[in-house]
Amino acid sequence: MKYIIIGMGNFGAYLAMRLTEMGHEVIGVDNNENRTELIKDKVTHVVTLNATDPQAVKNLPARDTDVVIIAIGEDVGASILSTAIFKQLQAKRIIARAINSLHETVIRSIGVDEIIHPEEETADRLSKRLQMKGVLDSLQISDEYNIVEVKLPKRYVGMKVSEADIRKEFYLNILTVIKMEDKTNLLGIKTKEKRVIGVITPEYTLEEGDLLLLFGKIKNIQEFLNLDE
User: Fold this and answer.
1) Residue 26 and residue 65: Cα distance in Å, rounded?
2) What gap in Å lies between CA 45 and CA 131, rounded to an integer?
3) In this structure, are residues 57 and 89 in contact, taking their beta carbons and an 8 Å threshold?
4) Backbone phi and psi for residue 70, each to the nearest 5 degrees, phi listed first
5) For the chain, how big is the Rg over CA atoms in Å?
6) In Å, how far from its chain's centre is CA 99?
7) pLDDT at 229 over 60
8) What sequence ranges are listed for the domain RCK N-terminal (predicted)?
9) Which pLDDT does position 144 carry in this prediction?
10) For residue 178, is pLDDT > 70?
11) How many CB atoms are closer than 10 A to CB 212?
12) pLDDT tens digits, residue range 166-177?
């Protein structure tokens, strides 16, 4: 897919680099040459231009891009103007970062396809993870359901998945198992790296140190987490 990302601050630059790493074509745009210079070797293309200038923005392939992301994080005026310009250019899909509630109201009225709040979403995800003891990571699906990454309780070590029967006891589905493996980086320092097993069969034997990726109701996840207490 093709992306244009406006604003190469911390959020925009990281997003541009990650999408590039995933094999997508990304154009990173910022009016600060120092910022574009820093990431020029890590993003497909980088352009130094003023995204509030309609004539300058017309040089970007807005209509041929799958998603335009307005990632400007400080200048509300620049974000609004840039969003309006891409809307006028009939970009296929526009995702805009909201800086505050008033800003969100304005860009929503312009007609963006999606509004994101990176800081709030990160804080919300972290708070939900911290409130459940034993959760290493989490992804809330709804108010009732969650996907969590947890350590395997000791009582299940050495059991086959069919023997543990976590689904029957706690109404939780094991989506996969993650193993932490030792890796040595270029500096010779040993680090831990995650390896996802894939689809788990009933015959898979659970081992000490395994991490389970579970899906189910939050109340049932909490009951499962209390096993080692």
Assistant:
1) 9
2) 41
3) yes
4) -90, 100
5) 22
6) 18
7) no
8) 1-116
9) 86
10) yes
11) 24
12) 999 999 999 999
The residue behind tokens 């190469």 is: 8
* Structure token digits, residue 42: 């890590």
Q: Which residues, in sequence order, are CB contacts of 110 under 8 Å at separation 6+?
A: 80, 83, 84, 87
Judged against a pLDDT cut of 70, whether residue 132 lies above it is answered with no
Give the H/E segment covering residue 208: none
Q: How high is the pLDDT of residue 184?
A: 75
**Domains recognised in the chain with CATH numbers:** 2-116 (3.40.50.720), 122-228 (3.30.70.1450)
Q: Sign of torsion, CA 73 76 80 86?
A: negative
Integer Cα distance of 47 and 63 in angstroms: 17
* Closest C-alpha among 73, 86, 87 to residue 35: 73
Helices vs. strands in the chain: H and E counts, helices first: 9, 11
DSSP notation for 145-158: EEEEEEEPPGGGTT
Tally the residues of the chain: 229
Reported pTM: 0.67
Give the up-direction half-sphere exposure of residue 66: CA atoms within 13 A in the CB hemisphere: 7
pLDDT above 80 (res 139): no
